[in-house]
Amino acid sequence: MVSCLAGLADWRGELICSTSWMVGVTGASRSSVMRALAGLEAGGALARRRRYRPAPAAGDWRGSGRLSRGASLITLHAARVVPEVEEAWVARELPDFCSRGPYVGTDDDEGLRSAILTASAEGWEGPATGVVARSLDAATGRQLAQAVKRGVVFSALGREESRLDTMGWAWQVLRMSEEAIASAASPWGYWTASTKNQVSRWRDAASPEESFDPSMMPIVSDPLPGECDAPLVGIGEIGPVLGGAVEALVVAGVDETLAWAGMRRVAELAMSASSRAHTSAAQDPRLADLGYSPAAARRMMTLVKGSRRGTKAPVLGLGPDQLRERAQEVADLVRDSGVPALTT
Predict the structure, then answer these.
(1) What's the pLDDT tens digit per position in 202-241?
(2) Using CB atoms within 10 A of its CB, is residue 328 exposed (0-12), middle (13-18) or buried (19+)?
(3) DSSP letters along 241-303, please?
(4) Regarding predicted confidence, which is higher, 78 or 106?
(5) Contact in structure between 40 and 17 (CB atoms under 8 Å)
(6) What percentage of the chain's residues is helix, strand, coil (to nearest 5)?
(7) Are strands 67-69 and 52-54 parallel, antiparallel or unpaired?
């Protein structure tokens, strides 16, 4: 629901949205939508304000002189940033151990689980600690070979230096996550994967393979398909002329949410390249996301700016009857686009 609201908002975070629109877009029940909006408002994510619009009178967009409840004006609030508190890092050095003695092979997960649990119960100071340490020593060259190689290539470590450093990281991971490793279905697999992730993140974080390739980035001078660098228009900047066109669209059967969001975007496009305004509207991905077909988007632009050849006047030169007819043309095309949220 939040993403739907964000898609309708202008640059100030304001939008006009009806409950029926949210019901149609999300597929949720009306009561569920109302509860969700109330929850977001209680949590400070948005604020709602009632709006009133002229009550329709026999298809006349100017209304009957009375006011009826319109779609709400919603203002989205910026999310509060909660600083991340990192867990304290307590260094756990690999203990001294005798290379001769029992150890657990990498194919024995249950043996490693038992050794870890025993060492933990001994406070990591008993014989089981040596078993775990020898097991790590024997497994590093195979289980952690990739991490050892990364240390040589990306961190400029010698081969033996990287092996010992990787063992130190693995021991740190074990001591910090001993319960998770011991309870995993495969303690060896969990321990190995966690160690690789930590080594890659902290020791080898600046490795070349993790950097991006500039040649794969889009060229800034070439816009993406359908992209148009249009000025920003807010809901509050749509004056009485375009506001009257919105009311005409609503009377013709277009949902208030769709009418306001579409008019705001068309106004932005109309203020951009004048000669390509109609084409820009037809190719605009934001209008397409709202449900306007290319034909409906073009007709909407014609309603605002008039036709490219001047055969149809812009909205400023339309009388009440002409505005009603032109709004009905847009509504019919929107209905043909299959948009579910149309007023009835």
Answers:
(1) 887 654 444 444 444 444 444 444 455 567 888 888 877 7
(2) middle
(3) HHHHHHHHHHHHTB-HHHHHHHHHHHHHHHTS-GGGHHHHHHH-HHHHHHT--HHHHHHHHHH
(4) 106
(5) no
(6) 55, 5, 35
(7) antiparallel
